């Protein structure tokens, strides 16, 4: 099975992931005004892009992984044909009201300073960036040795990387907010309180300064 098709099937079959995606999409659509356009950064197989386009938002999609891109072209074929979804080779190829990055896309970056500087040239004034990142406070990870070994690095440096081939990085919210400044300010962090211990993902909403 094609890698993009495998991912697509897996993530749609996971009830937990569907709930997370539904919350993320709902937040995006509540923030967008009628006719606002959006860049889906790290768009995967186009699941979110298809939903945004269905709600009347022209959606640019940036996906660097070839396998994902190929399946995105299949999944969003009709939307691409009528230019409701537009594939771009670089985020800088568009100017939009919002950038979204779902399911830990930003956790693959070791540093966000250059990324947010680039996104500042993509997002219009008063626009926003909404990202879904791995929650570094999630207690479900406490069963893993790497989580216990990395707690002090997280508190000291505001980040750490899992010692694996994927090199996934975890970040404190304030570390991401510091990287986003001065171009963006952190406007909202979800969840709050006990949710920070029980939710695998956190949503960070940044407003263009």
Task: Tell me what the structure shows.
The protein is α/β, with parallel strands linked by helices. 40% of the residues lie in helices and 24% in strands. The protein is built from nine helices and nine strands. The chain has helices at 3-13, 15-31, 47-54, 66-75, 77-81, 113-120, 145-157, 173-180, 195-198; strands at residues 38-41, 59-62, 85-87, 96-101, 123-134, 159-161, 169-171, 184-190, 201-208. It has a seven-stranded mixed beta sheet with strand order 3-2-1-4-5-9-8, with helices on both faces. A two-stranded antiparallel ribbon has the order 6-7. The N and C termini lie far apart (44 Å).
Summarize the structure.
By secondary structure, the chain is α/β, with parallel strands linked by helices. 40% of the residues lie in helices and 24% in strands. Strands 3-2-1-4-5-9-8 form a seven-stranded mixed beta sheet, sandwiched between helices.
């Amino acid at each position: 099975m094609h890698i993009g098709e495998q991912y697509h099937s897996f993530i749609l079959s996971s009830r937990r992931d569907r709930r997370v995606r539904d919350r993320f999409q709902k937040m995006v659509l509540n923030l967008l005004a009628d006719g606002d356009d959006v860049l889906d950064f790290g768009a995967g197989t186009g699941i979110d892009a298809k939903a945004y386009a269905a709600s009347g938002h022209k959606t640019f999609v940036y996906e660097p992984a070839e396998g994902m891109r190929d399946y995105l072209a299949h999944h969003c074929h009709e939307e691409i044909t009528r230019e409701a979804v537009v594939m771009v080779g670089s985020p800088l190829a568009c100017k939009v009201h919002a950038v979204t990055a779902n399911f830990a896309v930003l956790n693959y970056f070791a540093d966000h300073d250059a990324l947010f500087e680039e996104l500042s040239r993509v997002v219009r004034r008063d626009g926003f960036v909404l990202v879904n990142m791995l929650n570094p406070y999630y207690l479900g990870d406490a069963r893993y040795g790497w989580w216990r070994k990395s707690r002090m690095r997280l508190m000291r440096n505001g980040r750490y990387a899992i010692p694996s081939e994927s090199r996934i990085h975890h970040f404190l919210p304030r570390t991401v907010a510091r990287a986003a400044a001065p171009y963006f300010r952190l406007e909202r962090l979800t969840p709050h309180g006990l949710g920070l211990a029980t939710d695998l993902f956190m949503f960070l909403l940044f407003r263009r300064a």
